[in-house]
């Protein structure tokens, strides 16, 4: 157990920004449910036979013009929230007509980072800002795409060999929750909001299930958040234990609020395997 390690202070306004962004995205989900209605497929059958996330195989039918409209409004949201980066946002806005949103959507779904690196160079804008804005503008659509699979993911038929990867959209997960009651572990995807069950005494990165190589660490006076550490692959996973406070929490915000746990784990030589 670690003693007297104060949580890291987040920069002022940082958390408020993410909360506002999540609200914006929630509103867009509600609006777009009417206009974006992707077909539902047999998730468990598809991922069991392909061993790949659903999104890469079953195209989400995202219309470029819907994404373009969302993207323009997301840039306006950014301008409102972060006026200090107006110049950078305007530079993107001025080039919107040259951006191909069908291509952007297809590249995002394949997580083809090279495409976005090249696009940033062509547009002469920061890659980080460009990718961040596209990533967050498309999320409401990904969340709608993922909605019909919640049942499949909690069914006995669900089987997935890569618990650190979202079976629906293919993003990496870095936070999970332990259910109230039975303590079942659910991984969480902050891109599409999918949750899927994963074994408890088990490393989601390397599959290690030797109790002697698995540790839990928490900050003093905080039993709700834990770090799950694996000594075999040096992986760490943030965990919210619902049993501690007796209620669920918003894992999207929790993931941001607990940056101090990432710093702590990384200082101790652990990785969330984000760069693998
Ligand atoms: Zn996902
Ligand atoms: Zn491991």
What does this structure look like?
The protein has helices at 14-32, 43-50, 64-81, 86-93, 101-109, 113-123, 127-146, 150-153, 242-245, 251-257, 259-267, and strands at 175-178, 185-188, 195-198, 214-217, 225-230, 236-241. It has 276 residues and is α+β, with helices and mostly antiparallel strands. A six-stranded mixed beta sheet has the order 3-2-1-6-5-4. 31% of the residues are buried. A hairpin with a 7-residue loop joins β4 and β5 (225-230). It is built from eleven helices and six strands. The chain has two domains: 14-148, no CATH class; 160-267, FdhE-like domain (FdhE-like fold). The structure holds zinc ion (2 copies). Residues 203, 205-206, 208, 230, 232-233, 235 line the site of one zinc ion. One zinc ion binds at residues 203, 205-206, 208, 230, 232-233, 235.
Identify the notable features of this structure and list them briefly.
single chain, about 280 residues, alpha+beta, FdhE-like fold, 2 domains, 6-stranded mixed β-sheet, 11 helices, 6 strands, about 10% strand, disordered N terminus, binds zinc ion
Record the SSE blueprint:
Layout lengths: L13 H19 L10 H8 L13 H18 L4 H8 L7 H9 L3 H11 L3 H20 L3 H4 L21 E4 L6 E4 L6 E4 L15 E4 L7 E6 L5 E6 H4 L5 H7 L1 H9 L9
Parallel strand pairs: 1-6
Antiparallel strand pairs: 1-2, 2-3, 4-5, 5-6
Helix pairs in contact: 1-3, 1-7, 1-10, 3-5, 3-7
The structure holds zinc ion (2 copies).
